[in-house]
Amino acid sequence: MKILSYLLSVALVLFTLGVSLAGQFGPPEPTAKEYKPSIGIGYFYSESKMKSGDTGNLVFKSNQVYLQGSFSFVKNWEVFGRIGGADMREHAYSFKDGMKAFGSLGVRGLLYDDGLFGLGPIIQANIYSKHNDTTISGGVPQRLTVGNSWDGSLGLAARIKTSKVVFYYGPFVYMARNKLKVQNDSNTMKEKQNMGGFLGVNVSPIKGLNISLEGQYTGRFSAGGTVNYSF
Predict the structure, then answer these.
(1) How many domains does one find in the chain?
(2) Pairing with 180, which of 32, 53, 104, 229 sits 20 to 30 Å away (CA)?
(3) Using CB atoms within 10 A of its CB, is residue 82 exposed (0-12), middle (13-18) or buried (19+)?
C-alpha cells in the first residue's frame, strides 16, 4: 500500500508540472476538526487572462482579502465560505477600481488516506461585485464597467503529511466569466485557458493553528496565504 501511495504521488507531480502550478484551494484534508468549525483570514493576489472576439486577450489583476469559515460535516470533509474585498486592474484599458465585496463557497475532502499520502477533490466558486472606472482615450473620457464576474474550479489534490507540515498539489479545471462594458459596447469575457495547477504548504506550529501558503498557474501566476484556527 505504501508503494501505491508513492506511485500515485509521483504520477500527480508529473501531471501537474506538465499542466502548470498551484492555487488558493487549501489542502484536501479539512482545517476544521470533525463536526466543528474553523475561522481564518487570508490574502490572495490573482492574475487571470481573459479573452473575447472583440477585445482579444486582457489580463485582470486583483488583490483579495477575506475572512474564511469552515465546518467539517463528516470525517475528512468540510464546507467553507469566504467573504471579503477585491480590487481590480486591467492595463490595456488603464482600468483601476478599489475594493468591492466578493464571496466564495466550496467543499473539499479526502477520498483516500493512508496517513502519509491522501487524495481528494476540491470544488470552489467565487462571485465578485461590479467594478467601474473612467479613463481617457484620445482626449475623450470613457466609462468602463466590469460586471457579472464569477469563476468556478474543480481540482484533484494530493497531499503528503508529516506531524506538523502538509504539502499538497494537483491539477484543476475552471471556468471564468465577466462582462466588460466600454461606453455602450459590451463584451462577454471568458478564460483564455481552462486548465491549471496548484502547489502549497500548510504548517501547524501549535495545536489548532494552520498557516497555508499557495500558488497557482493558469497562464499567469497567482499566489496567497491563509491563517486558520480550528476549535
Answers:
(1) 1
(2) 104
(3) buried
